[in-house]
Structures are given as structure tokens and as C-alpha cells.
Amino acid sequence: MIPGDYVALAVILFVIGAVGVLIRRNAMVIFMCIELMLNAVNLAFVAFARLHGTIDGQVIAFFVMVVAAAEVVVGLAILMAIFRSRRSASVDDANLLKY
Amino acid sequence: MTSLSGALAAATITPPHIEYGQLSPLLVVFGAAVAGVLVEAFVPRERRRAFHLVIALGGLVAAFALIISVAATPSLFAHGSPGHVVAMGAVGVDGPTLFIQGTIVVLAFVSVLLIAESSHGVSPFAAQAAAVPGSAEEREGLLRGISHTEVYPLTLFAVGGMMLFPAANDLLTMFVALEVLSLPLYLLCGLARRRRLISQEAAMKYFLLGAFSSAFFLFGVAMLYGYSGSVSLSAIAAAAATNVSSATLLYAGIALVGIGLLFKIGAVPFQSWKPDVYQGAPTAVTALMASCTVVSAFGGLLRVFYVAFGQLTWDWRPAMWGVAILTMLAGAIIAITQTDVKRMLAYSSIAHGGFVLTAVVAATAAGLSASLFYLAVYGLTTIGAFAVVTLVRDPAGEANHLSKWAGLGKRSPWLAGVFAFFLLAFAGIPLTSGFAGKFAVFQAAAAGGALPLVIIGVLASAVAAFFYVRVIVLMFFSDPAPDGPTVVTPGLFTGAAVAVGAAATLVFGIAPEPLLALASHAAAHLFVR
To answer: Is the pTM of this model over 0.90?
Structure first.
């Protein structure tokens, strides 16, 4: 496989993640779809690093992983709090704020 | 053996050169945030608030003093240089950045005053965020009179991220700063003491949509890295000037990075989070977001579009025109239908973002300085307005529904008068800072060749003036509701926040020249590359 194919795969994964965020109802699954998008980004960075022959892209992938881990900590705390209050993780049930 | 391997390592790895002096404002704010975490760990609960206040306010004052001292360093701007790139190319220190950082620090200082307000025995923050609303644990926490003091270090981390975001000279640093400013804000949104379900819902919406937009930003960074082989803004600009081979990557990168940045500003069509989050978050946190976050996000947007995409103005300008028009019109028109005062201010904030975007599309030094001035005066007015919102209360907490504000001018003329003054400033009536700001951005936009934008902007201002005046009429010319809210006497901190907002709105309305001159001096050489 040439690096260009990996970029194409990254785009496909990113689109799958983005569509998942838009159509899924469970906050947890939405969050997993966002993680899929971030991993697609990592794949794109590593593939481009290989294409350009520089190491920057691989280092950036590590940064993305660390930030994603921090995001998981904050996100799960918020989702836990809302699940305990409502007994539901569906984003359709959280409808107090609208228009 | 160890010395040999040490020598080998020294030969291959050059230690990074860090200019601590020029980075000191950032380091002080982050240092104060870390000190706040240590206070949480080691200081007894009843004394924490005092410690936090000293550290947070002291840290922000010190950061402001350091920003001024950096800006006054003669060597920084010697020989007409726009500034320095420090920390191995990661951070730019230049006029616009220092102006934005100074603005953020001042606005954060006033916001921290609001966050710290607890003169009526209640802090605006939950006793225990982990306790389920309505549970015995929650009641116990409320009875013991405790509250989350973690809000101070969280605020400082967010402010540190906001200061780094517009200074970031490469897109990786910008992404890390984006997350450092966003993650604490997601948590702060969910910590309201009253109406906790709404607050938690706001936190969840902000988090999911914020993470979604960060993923777009990051994919855009990946595309630009693929295009230019670097994430540094100047390298991307250099590649855009020479490399014409893979334009798809470049345009995809501009669009995706633009989406990430416009989301943070709350520009239409990426505005849907803003009313919900502004309404649900504790009002003090809303004040922080409506002022500091907006300033910081515009700083980042200006730097990316002026430095990295500076030669591609003709490519991104049409899209930015569309976004600016949609933002001004949608913000102003949807605000008319709002019945909640915080939601109305949120839509007003969206519309104001559109007004600043008209100056951004000019892509000139005049546009930059007008944006800087507008952001500074708008931030101070908006904090004042949200500070007034915290004072109008009923037994359930803040009385945010506009019907409860009817006749407020008859019962507390001073408070209603100050709020009316802020609304007139939002509407852009002469002798308020809002007029000076609008005049500056529309003048810059017209000079930059965007006359149709200016016309739409003036029309949107007229629409917006309608709903601001409607609230004023409601407050002064309708009868008070029998179950109306009480207006609490402002504590020292909230009083100071309202006074600073009102004084700044008046002073910069009557005499805007010194601040305008400072902004145009700061923007004269644009951003460092």
C-alpha cells in the first residue's frame, strides 16, 4: 500500500465517525465516534509523515493521543453526572434547553 | 560510559531555547493555576476560598503587569519588526497578541470577581457536582454550606489556554491551547448550584459539540500538514505561495480549520451550541465565555487567516462573507423571539461576532485594529450585563425569564438603568462604547471593499436595536408582576464588576481615542511570521 491509500482510509474513517456523531442517539456512542474521528486524524498524520519523510507527523500523533485521553477524562465525568441524574444517556432525552 | 553516551546525546540533540521573559505572562497564569490545584490538596476547606482569591487575582494582575513590560521592551519591536517568535517557533509575541492577551487578562479578572461572589451566603457553584440533583447527598452538601472551590484553578487553566491560543505560531500548539481552554470550560458549565439538570445538559452539549469541532480542526491541521509538510503557520503560508500541485489538500485544510475556529466564535452555521450553553451555565461562567473565549477565538482566527492564509485572501473571502452575513442576520433575527434574558444575550453575542467578522474579511491592518478594539469594549460591556443578570433573583435562583423583568425599572431604577445602558451599548447608540466599536469595524470593512457587508451590518444592527429597546420598554413602561423577582443588593465583587463594565462602556463611548490609538499601534505591523 502506498501512503496515499492510508490517507484515503483516514478520510473514510473520519467520515464514518462524523456521520456516526450526527445519527447516533446514545451520548456514549457519539463520544466513541468522536474518538474514531481523532484516530482517523492520527492515521492521516502518520501517513503524511511517511509521504514527506519527516517525523513531525508521528510526534503530532502522540500529542493527539494525550489530548484525547484528557478529553476522555472530562467527557466521561460529564456523561456520568448526567446519566446519574437522568438514568439515561440518550441525547434526545436531554431537551430542557431549546430554541 | 555514561559520560560517553551523554556526549553522544548532546551531539545529536540540541536543547530547545526558551525565552522565559517573553513567555512570562503565560507562565504566571499557568503557575497560578497549578498553585490553585495544590491549595485544593493541602489547605483546609474553610480557608481555601481566600487562598484561591489571592492566587487567582494576584496571578492575573501579575500577568497584566508582565504583558505591559513585554510590550514596553524596546528590543522586541526594534527596526520595525512586528515581534518575535519564541519557544522554538511555537509561540509568537507581537503587538496584536499582546493586546489580545492584555484584554483577556482584564476580562478574566472581572469574571473571577463574579465567580467569587458569595455575599448572600451562596456561591453560584454546586456543593458537590457528583451528587445527584435532589438526593440526600446534595441536601447534606448544601446544608453544610460547602461549594466547589476547584472553579478557581479551572478558570485559570482556561484563561491560560485562552492566552496561548491567539499566540500559537503553529497549528499543533494552537490545538493544544484550544483543548486547554475548552476542557475546563466544559466542566465549569456543569457546576451550577441551581437548576442543575439544565446546567449538566449544557455541559454535555458543549462537550460533545466542542469535541466534534476539535476533530474537524485537527483533520484540517492534518490536511495542511499533508500539503506543506509542516504545521507552522509561516511554512504553510510559504508553501501556499509556491506549491500549486495539491490544492485539494490546501482548500480542505482551510475549510476544516475554519470550521473549528468559527465554531469557537459561534458563527452561523456553527452557532447552535451557544444559546443552550450560555443559558445553562452558571451566569458567572457565561460571562467568562462570552467575553474571554470570544476574544481568544477571534485572536486565533485572525492569526491563522492573516498569517497562514494571508496570500489566499481571494480564496477564503467569499466564504467568510457568507458566514458574516448569516451570522449578523440570524443572530439579530432569532434574538427577537427569545424569552430568556441569557438566551437573548447569547444570540446578541452571535450577532456581535458577525459584526467583528466584517472587519476580519477586510484582511488589513485597519481591520485588525478595529477587531481588537471592538472585542475589548464588547467584552467589558457583556460582563457588566451578565453581572446585572445575577442580581435579579426569585426563590428558585436567578429570574431569567423576560416576563419577570417587567416593571423592574419602577422597583429598582438604578439596576434597570444600568442594564438599559448596557443594552443601548449593544445596540450601538452614540456615546456608548458599542457605537465606537461598530463605527470602527464598519469603517474598516468599507475601506476594505466590503460595502455590501456594511449595509447588511447596519440593517442587522437596526433589527437588533428593536429587541434591545423592547427589553428597555418592558423594564420601564410596563407594570411589575405581583410575583416579581427581588433585586438583591450587589456584593462588593458583583458591584465592582457592574461598575467596571458601566464605566468602561461610558468612558470608551465618550473618549475612545486612546484605546483606538493603542489598538492601531498594536496592529500596525500585523502578526509576526
So the answer is: yes
